Records
---
Amino acid sequence: MIKNTFFYAMLFLATVSFMSCSEDSDEVTPEPTPTTNTIIDIAQGDDFTTLAAALDRVSLTATLNGAGPFTVFAPTNAAFTALLADLAISGLDEVSDDVLTEILLNHVVSGTVMSTDLTAGYVSTLATGAQDTKVSLLVDLTDGVKLNNTATVTAADVVADNGVVHVIDQVILVPNVVATAVANPNFSILVAALTDERLAKADFANTLSGDGPFTIFAPTNEAFTALLASNEEWNGLADIPAETLEAVLKYHVIVGDNINASEITDGAKPTTFEGNTFVINTTDGVVITDVAGKESNVILADVQASNGVIHAIDRVLIPLK
C-alpha cells in the first residue's frame, strides 16, 4: 500500500512538473522594439525641436521618415530664432503653410551627399521654383561649407538610416532672382548695376523681385570688367551713362518665361525687357549674338530661383549698334 501511495505521489509530481514546463514553453519572449535612426529621429533631438515641429506642421515628417535617401541641411533652434528676428515676427505660425513648406524643402537634396561629396557650385533642392522647376542652392567650399553665402555647416555627416544630416547655423530662405544674384560673388558688379541709384525710377531690384517669371542672362564680373575696358572713358559703372546702363540691363532680361537651357531652340530670337531681340544658337554650346553682332557664351546654365532662372554669360550684351 505504501509503495502504491509513493508511486502515485511521484506520478502526480511528474505530471505537475511537465505541465509547468509546458506552460513555461508557451510563454513568448517579447521581441525588442526595433530602434531607428532616420532623419526625423535626428530632427527630434534637443537642438532641432523647432525644425521637427515645422516639418510636422506641413506634413513633411512622413516624407523624411521614408526610404529616401535624403541630404538635409538642418537649421538649429537658434537658427530659427534668428530667422524670426530677421523677419520681425513672433513665431512660425505667422508664415503660411505653403511658404514654410518651400523653405523647409529648400534644405533638402535628393540622395546621400556626404561632406566629402560636395563640390563648389549649385545643387538642386526639393523646393519648387517658377514653372515647377527645382530651386538651386549655392555651395561654397572656400572656408568650410557655406550655403547661399549665408548659412554655414557647423557639424557635418550625421549619418541617418535614410540619408545624412548636416547642421547649419541659419535658415536658408528660397531666393528670388535678385537674392540669387546677390548670393553669388561672381555677380557683384551686376548687382551693383541693378541697384545703381541713378536707376531708381527703373527700380530693377523691386521689379525682378516680383512674380515673374524671368529669364536672366547674367554677365559675370569678368564680363563687366571687359565692358569697362572697352571704353577708355569708363573706369567704373558710374562712368556709363545712366540711360545706356538701363538699356543694357533690360537687354539681359526676358519677362514672362522661365527658359531652361534644355528649352532653348537653335535660332531662337526672344524679345527682351528692353524691346530688342538677340539670337541664340545651340550648335556649339549656348551662344548669344546681340544686335551689334557680338557673341556671348552661356558658361553656367539653369541657376533656378523662386521666380525665374539665371544663365551666367561671359560678355555683356549690347542692345545698340
Note: DSSP finds eleven helices and 13 strands in the chain.
---
Amino acid sequence: MLKWVKPSKVEVYSFLISMPFIDLGLQAILYGDRVIYDNPIWSISFPLIYVIGLLSWYSQVLYNAWIEKKFPSLAESGKRIITKCLVYVVVMSPSVLFIFFLYDRLHILGYSIKEGDLKMGLILGVVVNLIFVGLWEAIYIIKKYKESLADIELIEQMGTQQEFENLKNQVNPHFLFNCFNTLSSLISIDKKQAETFLDELSKVYRYLLRNNEDGISTLEKEVKFMHSYYRLLKTRYGDGLNLSIEIDKRYQPYLLPSLSLQLLVENAVKHNIVSKQQPLMLEIFTTAGNKLVVNNNLQKKQQKEKSTHIGLNNIRAKYKLMKQQGFQVVEGEKNFMVVLPLIWNDNKQEPYLNNL
C-alpha cells in the first residue's frame, strides 16, 4: 500500500505550469467557442477540472515514487522508463475519460459527448504529461548519477585512507628493526655506549609514535625530530656522521609526510660507509619552489645490506596518495639527493589529507 509521498519541487512546479494549459485545452474541447464568453465555464468548470487534475497528478506522484523504489538504480533505467510509461494507461487515461463521462452524465453546463472529444482529450493529456514526466525521469537519472559518483569518490577516499594507514604502520617496525640491529652490535662492542643509545632510543621512539599518528606534519616539527634522531645516531657513530640543516623560516609551516627526514637519513646511514676515516656528510636544506632537499655524499658499502626498500618507496607512495608531484631521487657519482615537495598549509587540504 502506498503511503503519503511528499512531491518534489520539480513535480510541484510541473503541475502548476502544465495544469492551467491542460485545463484550458479540455475546456476548449468540451465547450468550443463558449470558453471565450461563457463565465460559468471559468467559475465552475475550470476549478472542477483543476481539482480532478490535482488528484490525477498526485496519483502520478505516488506511481512515480513506487516505480523509483522498485527500480532505483541507473542499471534499471530501462525497466523504470518502460514501467513509467504505463502511467498513461493506469492513471492519466482513466482521468481524462472520467472527466468526459462525468460531464456528459451530469450534463454539466449542457455538455454532451461529441465524436472525437475523447480522442482529442487523450492526445492533449499524453503530450503534456510526456513532457513533464520525461523531465522527472531525466532529473532522477542525473540525481542518481551524481550519487554514484559520490559513492565512487567515497570508496576511493576510504581506500586511500586505508592505504596511507598501511604506509604509516610500515615505518615503526622498520625503524625498530634497524635500531635493534644497531643496539645488538653496540652491546658486544661497548656496553656503556649501548646503554646511552637505548636511553636516546626510548626518547626518540616516543617522539616518533606521537608524530606518526597524524601521518603528515609541519617541516618545523620534522626538523625538531631530526635533531633528536641525529643525537641518537651520534651515540652510535660519533665523528663518523655529520649533519647540516639550513631551513628558510618561511617554510617551517609547510607540510610533508611525517618521518620523511628520518627515513631518508636512516636510508643514507644504512647504505653508506659511516666512519671517522670516511665520515658521512648529510645536508638538509630548502630551495626556491617550495622544495626540501636531503643530500649525502655517496660512499656505498662494498658489502650491501639487505634492503626492504621501505624508506624511499614509502615516501614516494605517500606523495602519490596525496596527489602531490615533485618527489625526486637523484643519484650522481659522488652524491645521493632526494627532493621533497613542501605542501602549502592552508588548513583546507583534501578530506583524506586532513585525516592522515
Note: Strands lie at 216-218, 241-246, 255-257, 280-287, 291-297, 328-331, 335-341.
